[in-house]
Amino acid sequence: MSHPTDGRVAVIGLNARGAALARASAAAGVAVTVWDEPGPLAEAPPIDGASRADSLQAAFTAASLILLCVDDYDSAQRILDQAERHVGSTDVVNLTSGTSAQAEQVAAWMDARGGRYLDGALMAHPEHVGKPDTVLVYSGSPQVFERHESSLKLLGGATYLGAAPGAAALYDVAMLNFAWATLIGFLQTATLLGTAQIPATTVTPLLTHWLSTTVTDVINDYARQVDERHYPGDEEWLELDAPLMVHLIEATRTRGLDTALPELIKSLTDQGIDAGHGKDSFASLVEIIRR
Predict the structure, then answer these.
(1) Strands (E) located in 154-234
(2) Beta-carbon count within 10 A of 143 CB
(3) CATH 1.10.1040.10-classified regions of the chain
(4) What is the DSSP letter of 215?
(5) CATH 1.10.1040.10 is right for the domain spanning 195-289
(6) Of 95, 133, 143, 225, which is least surrounded by CB within 10 A?
(7) Cα 260 to Cα 95: distance, rounded to the nearest angstrom
(8) Cα–Cα distance measured from residue 256 to residue 161, given in angstroms and rounded to the nearest whole number
(9) 98, HSE (Cβ side, Cα atoms, 13 Å)
(10) pTM assigned to the model
(11) What are the tens digits of pLDDT across the range 208-242?
(12) Which CATH number fits the domain 9-163, given the four candidates 3.40.47.10, 3.40.50.720, 3.30.450.20, 3.30.70.1350?
């Protein structure tokens, strides 16, 4: 079946993320239709430049691209079930958060009905939608991505990860892991320095500079080590790091703070040393995580 595009977009789901998708598309001059299931969100204030469909079927028939962004995959599948007879005549990009298995199930359901499906993940808060540097990743139908790439780039940076429909969802949780680990580290650092009356806003410029220079270089080096499974300890090694972690735990405890995070890092390091990686770099802890 031919799947032409005319630039019209329907956003299904008016939660904070869905509304942000609609606003960004409408602000760029795209003809946008919005719809949500009956409930508080369906009665949300109008979005400038977007029209509201009076039914799910009207939303599907009003656009060549459906942006689906609801609270979970159960909701997404329920909506697709209701629009089953229309899924073969439009392209669906699902930006609902979920797992790889859920994305693969929806992709298989769509494929069985002649639909074209692209899974996606928004790696940002709603207020970042529409900014060129905002990270969005997509996987699934290459035809859908190619056909609507210009529309997807109105939402932020559009990175295609390949034809496996579950790839975007896996990137989503993996990158959230990176974000949460980084941000909890920041909160621990800010709290520790806060015990000396050092404001977080004072240390943040130093931290962000360190992240963009030294830490970025280390991550790039560790990426090569992880792929090669070779962890040279010529500049830093676990037995060198371990005493510094003890200092961190002692400082944290002495100042009356929770020690769970530094103790977790020390525990992984101790396991690495016990496994024979004492003279290897910090990147060797990936072998402990892989177990």
Answers:
(1) 157-160
(2) 13
(3) 195-289
(4) I
(5) yes
(6) 133
(7) 34
(8) 45
(9) 25
(10) 0.91
(11) 999 999 999 999 999 999 999 999 999 999 999 99
(12) 3.40.50.720
